[in-house]
């Protein structure tokens, strides 16, 4: 394991990403001198500079001079000049997961894992524990709604971490407790079929020796945690922590929560959608298992401000509301659109950007019925996330699947984001919701369209 106690200067490659920027924040909290580099200027780099991180735009061999260790994100390859320079100088080069594992080993760590919902649930749990006095450190893989990087280091014995399964390294984290939200096929490779992914989640569950909180409504999560001592949360009668919806709106969900059948109190979740009610219930369940009172947890949850790109309101122009969401998998798309369809807008106009060629090639048929809650759908081409193209794989596959499932549906394929923005400017009308879905650069489109509609 990486020994951070002897590292006084750490250099991070890909420091502008959600994962590495969070590591930078924690390392600064530990008292390390931190430097980093990334390929482009972003607002996150400015936030890191404010924390005293020496940030470089562009990659040069000289940036690693004086570093005790170097760590890199999964997007940084062996051909990076800083990686090569570090190795030539005898400076150890670690993966982000190895650094994060060392950090989790320094505290009693609660990990939040799952195909969907882990970012929001981890952020909710961190918020509830902070507001109720536990003051945990945490690492969440997104910028928080208040604009801060999703990380903090504290002197509390508790640490909350979002455990990412994308490359299998979540199994390296040293955890005492865990929340498991869901398990579905994703991040599959030739050497990582569905069975292996499920086995990785099962091993993860088995390592949470002091407590496991599992979503009872998710078959994959139930299967992965089978045989482990677990506490269940969900909508159904088998759940130890159970939610019953009392009301919903565009802004929030309100529900009654029981624990083992006994009333725990009313819970207001300041984000709409059944899926977010489940996320909040999972966070409250773990907080209660850690000793937080039910009423205290509920009061804290009411003040949760959210996470960027999770049903994030982006503005309004010409009577049109704009919301952006990170949904990029079939279940996530369906949940986001169901939530939008219940919001009372005249029309829900959805723009979906597929994410990664590999994911699209594996899952495109499963998107067929995901868009049924939308009044109009625009599918763009794929955001590659650094992957090389695969012949015959494009956003048209998802458009084709959706169109075959809904022959009469208003579903269009518009490859370029700029052309999609033009389409929206011409077609949106007062009373509409424009909902952008995807994990790529589609998040720019609401700003483009809002500006152009405002200038009319």
Name of the CATH class of the largest domain: Alpha Beta
Number of helices: 14
Outline type = globular
DSSP strand tally: 21
Helix % is 25-40%
Q: What's the CATH H-level superfamily name of the largest domain?
A: Mur-like, catalytic domain
- Poorly predicted sequence stretches spanning 5 or more consecutive residues: none
| CATH fold-type name of the largest domain | UDP-N-acetylmuramoyl-L-alanine:D-glutamate ligase
Strand order of the largest sheet: 8-7-9-6-10-11-12-13-14-15
Structural class: alpha/beta
- Oligomeric composition of the shown chains: single chain
Mean pLDDT: 94
**Share of residues in strands:** 15-25%
Please give the largest β-sheet: 10 strands, mixed
Radius of gyration: 22 Å
How many independent structural domains?
Answer: 3
CATH-level-2 architecture of the largest domain: 3-Layer(aba) Sandwich
Report how far the terminal alpha carbons are from each other.
Answer: 59 Å
Textual characterization of the structure:
With 456 residues, the chain is an alpha/beta fold. The chain has 3 domains: 4-94, Rossmann fold (3-Layer(aba) Sandwich), CATH 3.40.50; 107-301, UDP-N-acetylmuramoyl-L-alanine:D-glutamate ligase; 312-454, Protein-Tyrosine Phosphatase, Chain A. It is built from 14 helices and 21 strands. A 10-stranded mixed sheet has the order 8-7-9-6-10-11-12-13-14-15, sandwiched between helices. A 6-stranded mixed sheet has the order 16-17-21-18-19-20, with helices on both faces. Helix 8 packs across helix 9. The protein is globular.
């Amino acid at each position: 394991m990486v020994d951070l106690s002897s590292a006084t200067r750490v250099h991070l490659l890909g420091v502008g990403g959600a994962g590495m920027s969070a590591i930078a924040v924690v390392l600064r909290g530990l008292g390390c001198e931190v430097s980093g580099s990334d390929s482009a200027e972003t607002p996150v780099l400015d936030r890191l500079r404010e924390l005293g991180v020496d940030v470089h735009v562009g990659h040069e061999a000289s940036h690693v001079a004086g570093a005790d260790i170097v760590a890199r994100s999964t997007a940084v390859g062996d051909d990076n000049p800083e990686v090569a320079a570090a190795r030539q100088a005898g400076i150890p080069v670690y993966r982000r997961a190895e650094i994060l594992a060392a950090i989790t080993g320094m505290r009693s760590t609660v990990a939040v894992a799952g195909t969907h919902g882990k970012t929001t649930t981890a952020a909710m749990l961190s918020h509830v524990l902070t507001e109720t006095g536990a003051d945990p450190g945490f690492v969440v893989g997104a910028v928080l709604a208040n604009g801060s990087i999703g990380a903090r280091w504290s002197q509390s014995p508790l640490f909350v971490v979002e455990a990412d399964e994308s490359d299998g390294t979540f199994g390296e984290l040293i955890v005492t407790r865990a929340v498991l939200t869901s398990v579905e096929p994703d991040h599959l490779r030739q050497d990582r079929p569905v069975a292996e992914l499920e086995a990785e989640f099962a091993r993860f569950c088995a390592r949470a020796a002091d407590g496991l909180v599992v979503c009872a409504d998710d078959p994959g999560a139930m299967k992965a945690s089978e045989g482990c001592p677990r506490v269940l949360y969900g909508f159904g009668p088998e759940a130890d922590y159970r939610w019953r919806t009392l009301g919903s709106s565009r802004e929030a969900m309100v529900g009654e929560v029981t624990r083992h059948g006994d009333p725990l109190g009313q819970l207001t979740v300041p984000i709409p959608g059944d899926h977010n009610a489940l996320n909040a219930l999972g966070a409250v369940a773990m907080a209660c298992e850690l000793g937080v009172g039910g009423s205290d947890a509920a009061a804290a949850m009411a003040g949760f401000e959210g996470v960027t790109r999770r049903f994030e309101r982006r503005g309004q122009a010409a009577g049109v509301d704009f919301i952006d969401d990170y949904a990029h998998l079939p279940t996530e798309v369906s949940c986001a659109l169901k939530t939008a369809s219940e919001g009372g807008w005249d029309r829900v106009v959805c723009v979906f950007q597929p994410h990664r060629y590999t994911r699209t090639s594996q899952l495109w048929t499963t998107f067929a019925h995901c868009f049924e809650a939308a009044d109009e759908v625009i599918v763009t081409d794929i955001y590659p996330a650094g992957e090389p193209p695969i012949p015959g794989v494009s956003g048209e596959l998802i458009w084709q699947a959706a169109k075959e499932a809904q022959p009469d549906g208003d579903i269009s394929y518009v490859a370029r984001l700029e052309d999609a923005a033009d389409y929206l400017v011409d077609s949106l009308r007062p009373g509409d919701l424009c909902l952008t879905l995807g994990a790529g650069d589609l998040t720019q489109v609401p700003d483009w369209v809002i500006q152009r509609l405002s200038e009319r």
